[in-house]
Design a protein that fits this description.
Length: 569
């Protein structure tokens, strides 16, 4: 496809796009920074001095606590995810394919639901601590999840998947000819791994480490529920907001956002380096070239190990399902519940007040997802245009930077930025205050999950052959006809996949919701948390199970539709 100069016909799309991105992403973040540097309407560093005041070390403790837990999360996630990736990518044993699918199950659980599952299993009154206390006749329950160990367990359970997927994909893409050449030169198995395989895996490991660190820094749910006396910056932002100290909340938000943006830049740089870090690979290497055949006894042993790993992964979810059938208030001092009922589920359908959080979450997530799909489609299309001039290259770079900013911003920061920005009227809000209205949560969901939708759509455009559009143009098709009959149908599976991921994330969104919701817009995640605080454990678990089932159904429908779509195109 010939390169062309920037087409000014693109401006009807690029101008509205930049306006939307400026109003929803850039302006709130800049307003957050501006307000954090003001006191009584004038420039001031007062709150920053308060933050770094060594005589009042609460904020510094929170900052160090977030950094320390993130570093520990990276370490232990790597220790779990990398061996699993090697196990499932390089060794053949019974059940390998099934276990390889189940090992990614933690991705299905929204953060709050995952924390809730561990709370029932290993919390203060959890099944496992009480069971061990009874079994060994101990004066106190052992292995109770609290503080840093509890947060670390939840984080590793949720984030090891990044290491597993990154390293597994790197292993499958590695060129087996390099290993064969090393063995042919007399290198032993250990030397081949150290000098040949590990250098190929290093970009993937570093990329996963940066992503896990950044995600752990933004974590709110596990530190909030299990943190106890430990301080973490995301929780301190929430506490400052509740205490009415918005200047400090904004300052804390700017600091954690700055750290996250730094790691986003490192991640982007590392992603670019990773493109040159792999061997070229060979077709079919993932199936045959790198798969090691083992003796029967070792296969059985690995199958047992795989089964135990899978059992440990699904045990929290099985616990959650069991608690969903427990009558509220009946599970107190027993090891296992002894009163089961369907009331937790039937009540949801009999009374409108219990159904309202489902409806709220659905319509708010749906609006945010549809808006994100439309913006992502336009943005990815503009970015995919041939970069023949500096202006067009600058446009593509600005689109990418603006959309990917929320990827590095924790949910608490997004919520505080929206509060700081839309707690007063603006001309582009028709002089309305959006905080406290039904608009603010869909806006937060849109901002939070737009990067995911954009990346999925951009990946679809990257696979699109420009020759198809050129052929339609040569046959006399108008721009609209080419878009509607050629471009959009071919990239629609990518758009749908990004929309699916954004939808399921929005359905379980808790971090921004807890700061922005009102009584009339209470989403499902906040209702789950409210039921937990009221010790209605059965109802909280029932809501969580239904939410997980909805997410699983949405993912299955999307996979089925995309699969059918791929076979018909």
């Amino acid at each position: 496809m010939k390169l062309r100069r920037f087409n000014f016909a693109d401006w009807p799309f690029s101008l509205p796009l930049f306006f939307i991105l400026a109003v929803t992403i850039l302006f709130p973040l800049l307003a957050l920074v501006r307000d954090s540097l003001q006191a009584n309407g004038a420039f001031s560093l007062t709150t920053y001095r308060r933050f770094f005041d060594f005589t009042q070390s609460a904020n510094l403790q929170a900052l160090l606590g977030s950094i320390n837990i993130s570093l520990l999360t990276v370490l232990f996630s790597a220790l779990c995810g990398i061996p699993l990736a090697i196990l499932f990518a390089r060794f053949d044993f019974p059940g390998r394919k099934l276990f390889g699918v189940l090992v990614t199950m933690p991705v299905l659980l929204p953060p709050l639901v995952g924390v809730l599952a561990f709370y029932f299993l290993l919390g203060e009154t959890g099944i496992l601590p009480r069971g061990l206390q009874w079994l060994f006749n101990l004066p106190a329950a052992p292995l109770v999840m609290r503080g840093v160990p509890a947060i670390l367990i939840v984080h590793v359970y949720s984030f090891y998947v990044y290491f597993y997927l990154f390293v597994r994909n790197a292993l499958l893409a590695a060129d087996p000819a390099l290993e064969e050449a090393a063995r042919g030169l007399g290198a032993g198995r250990g030397r081949v791994w150290w000098r040949v395989i590990l250098p190929q895996l290093l970009p993937a490991i570093l990329g996963a480490a940066l992503l896990v660190f950044m995600t752990s820094m933004a974590s709110f749910t596990a530190p909030y529920i299990f943190g106890g006396n430990w301080r973490f910056l995301t929780v301190e932002i929430y506490n400052s907001k509740l205490n009415g100290d918005m200047p400090m909340a904004m300052t804390q938000a700017v600091i954690i956002a700055s750290i996250s943006l730094l790691f986003l830049l490192l991640l982007r740089f590392q992603s670019g380096q990773a493109l040159t870090g792999f061997g070229r690979g060979t077709k079919g290497a993932a199936k045959t070239g790198n798969l090691r055949q083992l003796p029967a006894l070792q296969k059985i042993l690995l199958a047992v190990v795989g089964f135990l790993v899978m059992l440990a992964l699904i045990l929290p979810q099985l616990t959650l399902v069991m608690i969903a059938f427990v009558k509220n208030g009946s599970w107190t001092s027993q090891i296992l519940p002894d009163t089961f009922t369907l009331e937790n589920f039937t009540t949801l359908w009999r009374q409108q007040q219990f159904l309202r959080p489902f409806w709220n979450s659905f319509w708010m997530a749906a609006i945010a997802t549809v808006a994100g799909a439309m913006v992502s489609l336009v943005a990815a299309w503009l970015q995919a245009r041939p970069a023949a001039t500096k202006r067009s290259r600058l446009t593509a770079a600005l689109i990418d930077l603006s959309i990917m900013l929320p990827y590095a911003i924790p949910g608490t920061v997004v919520a505080i930025a929206l509060i700081a920005t839309f707690n007063e009227p603006h001309w582009f809000t028709a002089n309305n205050i959006l905080v406290g209205t039904a608009v603010i949560l869909p806006l937060a969901y849109f901002i939070r999950h737009l990067p995911i939708q954009f990346r999925a759509t951009a990946a679809a455009f990257a696979q699109f052959d420009p020759a198809l559009d050129e052929a339609a143009r040569n046959l006399g098709a108008s721009w609209w006809r080419r878009m509607s009959r050629v471009t959009v149908p071919l990239v629609l599976p990518g758009v749908a996949t990004g929309a699916m991921v954004a939808l399921v994330n929005a359905l379980g969104e808790f971090v921004a919701s807890i700061l922005l919701y009102t009584y009339s817009t209470e989403p499902l995640s906040v209702r789950i948390f409210s039921e937990l605080r009221l010790f209605n454990l059965g109802s909280a678990a029932a809501y969580s199970v239904i939410l997980t089932a909805i997410i699983g159904l949405v993912m299955w429908l999307n996979q089925k539709w995309v699969g059918e779509r791929s076979t018909t195109i």
